[in-house]
Every structure is written in C-alpha cells, then in structure tokens.
Design a protein that fits this description.
about 425 residues; mainly alpha
C-alpha cells in the first residue's frame, strides 16, 4: 500500500507564484478598509513613480500590496497565454516585478513598454516568447511612462500620447540593446537588462532636460511598518527553508553542489536542481537579508527595502547563492564602514542588497575579486541615479554593468599575459 502524498508534493512550477499572488491579495485587505485601499491604489496609479518613490507613502500599505498582486496577476496571465514554461530567468523576472511593484511599477506604466517589445517582435517576425525574459525585466523603466503623464505638468491630451510614445520606443529598442550588453558585461552582471535600461534612461533624461522639463529625483518614504515587514519577510523565508528541507538529505547535498556554480549568465539553476534546492537557497539568502535589516537599525524598513529583498531572493534561481554572494557583501560592508555617510542614504541601503548583481565575478574569479567588486559597486553607485534621472528602477544593474566590464576586462587582460609568459618560459626550457 503506497503512502499518501503530503500536500507540498503536489506543488509544481506553475503554483508557487499564483500562491504568492493569493498571499499579496489577502494581505491587501488586512491593513485598510476597501474605500481607503482603492483610494490609495488610485494615488499609486497617478504617481510619477520616479526613484525613490515608496508606494507605502503614496497609497498606503494595503493599496501597495494590492498593486503588487495585480501586476503579478497580469504577468502570470500573459505567461499563460504565451504558454511559457517556468525556468530560472522567468522566476527571477517575476519576483523582480513583485519587488518593484512596491516602489515604481504599476499596470499603467508597464503596459506601453510591453507593447514596445511586442512591436519589436512583430517587425522582426519573431514570436514574443523569444523575448519573454526581456519583456518581464523591461518594466524596470516604467517610471518613464508615469513621469510623462503625471510629472511633466503637461495637459493629459499631451502627456498621454507622450507617455505612450516614450514607453513604446523604450520597449522597442530594448531587445536589440540587450544582446550587445551581454557581450559588454561578459555575463557577470545578473541585472543585465537594468544596465541597458540605464543607458536608455540617460538619453530620455537628456532629451527632457533639453526640452526644459524638470526631472526631480523623489524621496517619498514611509518607515512606520518596520516590525510588520521584517516579520513578513522572516515568515516567507522560513517557509521557503522548510519546503526545501522537506526534500531530505538529497536536497541538502544538492544545495552544497549548487555552491560550485559560478552564477555567470546565463545560469538557470532550475535546469540542474529541483525546486526544493532553489527554495532552500532562497530561504537562506532571505534570512541573511532579514538579519541585515533587523540587526542593523540604521537600515530603514519600508516599501523600498521590502521590495528590494523580495527582488534579490528571486535570483536564487538565476545566479546567486551563499558562496558567490558573501564576497560582494563583504566588499559592500567594507565601503560602508569607511564611508562617512554609513547607512544615511536609502540608495546605499538598496545597493547593499543589489550588489548581488556582481556575484558571478566572485563565483568565477574568487573571493578577493568578489570583495573588490562589492566595494567598487558601492563606491560609484551614488552617481548613477542622478546620471539616469531616476527612470531606471534597476539603477544597481546600470551601475553593476560598468563594474563588471571594468573588473572582468582588467582581470582577463593580465591573466592572458600571465599565461603567455608561462608559455614562453616553457619554450625557453
């Protein structure tokens, strides 16, 4: 007689994110009444959403969770229509979408960009499924759309067409530029699309300045929900770990094998490792992140930081694990310790988590190079938000692209010379 399966044995790739949608949807109605929720949701829709706009401060906690739920649901429906099979990049993209729905993304400012990617595929006569990952990450430039309508002070009959044009153009250009960016960064920047979106944002920022529009960086933050958000993150990560450990000894062995992966793009962990290993990886990384925000009191806990942690742990299926993340985190902490500002800037706190974008450098070149990468990222990151005007939500991906290019190019140059010298010595002997 066969033993009955436990409930978690019925989970497959298509169920985790729908369950996350249900969680977000239920949480929406736990903090505010329906009238307040939808009033706040309306405020989120008409926000300029420029970095750094905490939707908790704009629309309230319930409305923000509702926004994340609706954006996730839309993308799940889109993937279902396209009949896309879930993999590491898709999972990471969806988690990134959820995370940034707490500070910058909503349905209104996402749709024109998706339409631009669709038109790119239409004119090239390729299926949209070929650029699914690019489509998911493309919404990183969504504040561009919101700014055109709600941040330029133009009448709606000018602002809406301008938003549609800019959003569609950004989405249309993105797939072509992503291919070149991968060669530029060498595959060592996990947030590669963020790098491209930063470049696109720079051009739009320059054009808006030329036209006389004021593009002002936002600093709208609500830090009044610290305990609730930390507890929620802790519970999510703990559930991930418990689900992972349900796989027993095999899962633990596979988890240690996962640590040998470099994480260099394109590293789809879901190809070689089962879901329990991925979720164990997510939970462990998430608990460490929870430890940062709980024990380091200077780190504010708001919609921005909550979304940041959610976004980062999604990449546990697509490039990051404990061994390649620790060096870049150490490098980031070294910078913060010697910096006079410490954790005073919310962008610095975000960079501490998103420095994980450079984890493949540590995975490929070792612990010391990882420390250098983390330090360099925090060193130059403050300049990049102003450089791109706040339109690129994935600002750390923009910064990490230059760090990855600099380090891997220099390293390979001198490593090549070392190999060449060794060959000459062998010839002399």
């Amino acid at each position: 007689m066969t033993k009955p399966k436990k409930i978690y044995h019925y989970l497959d790739d298509t169920m985790y994110l729908p369950l996350l949608f249900i969680l977000l949807f239920v949480l929406s109605f736990c903090f505010e009444d329906i009238t307040t929720l939808f009033t706040g949701y309306g405020k989120i829709m008409v926000s300029s959403s420029i970095l750094l706009t905490d939707y908790f401060a704009v629309g309230g906690m319930g409305a923000t969770f509702f926004n994340a739920a609706t954006v996730l649901l839309f993308n799940l429906i889109l993937l279902h229509i396209l009949k896309i099979k879930y993999n590491g990049p898709i999972f990471a993209g969806l988690m990134m979408i959820v995370g940034f729905s707490f500070f910058g993304k909503n349905l209104i400012n996402t749709l024109p960009i998706y339409l631009g990617v669709f038109l790119h595929c239409y004119f090239r006569r390729v299926p949209l499924s070929n650029f699914t990952v690019v489509t998911l990450f493309s919404s990183g430039i969504s504040p561009l759309v919101s700014y055109c309508v709600f941040g330029t002070n133009l009448p709606l009959y000018y602002g809406i067409p301008l938003a549609l044009f800019c959003g569609i153009l950004a989405g249309f250009l993105l797939p072509a530029l992503v291919e070149g960016a991968l060669a530029f960064t060498g595959g060592y920047n996990l947030y590669n699309v963020g790098f491209v979106l930063g470049i696109i944002s720079v051009f739009f920022y320059g054009i808006f300045n030329l036209l006389g529009f004021d593009v002002n960086l936002a600093s709208i933050i609500d830090d009044t929900h610290r305990i609730v958000l930390i507890l929620l993150l802790f519970v999510i990560c703990l559930l991930c770990i418990l689900y992972g450990l349900s796989g027993g000894k095999k899962t633990i062995i596979s988890y240690f094998n996962l640590q040998k992966e470099t994480g260099k793009l394109i590293s789809d962990f879901k190809i070689n490792y089962n879901n329990k290993v991925i979720f164990l990886n997510m939970g462990i990384l998430g608990l460490i992140a929870c430890g940062f925000v709980y024990f380091i009191k200077e780190i504010p806990v708001n919609g921005i930081m909550f979304g940041t942690v959610i976004s980062v742990i999604g990449f546990a299926a697509y490039g990051i694990h404990l061994r390649n993340v620790l060096p870049v985190w150490i490098g980031a902490f070294i910078y913060i310790l010697i910096s006079k500002d410490k954790f005073a800037s919310i962008s610095t706190c975000m960079a501490l988590f998103f420095v994980t974008s450079l984890a493949p450098l540590a995975g490929e070149y070792g612990f010391f190079i990882g420390i250098i990468a983390g330090f360099c990222h925090l060193l130059i990151n403050p300049f990049f938000i102003e450089f791109q005007g706040g339109f690129d939500l994935y600002n750390n991906g923009f910064c990490a692209g230059f760090v990855a290019f600099f380090i891997h190019t220099i390293y390979n140059h001198f490593n090549w010379r070392k190999k060449l010298l060794q060959r000459f010595k062998k010839i002399e002997k």
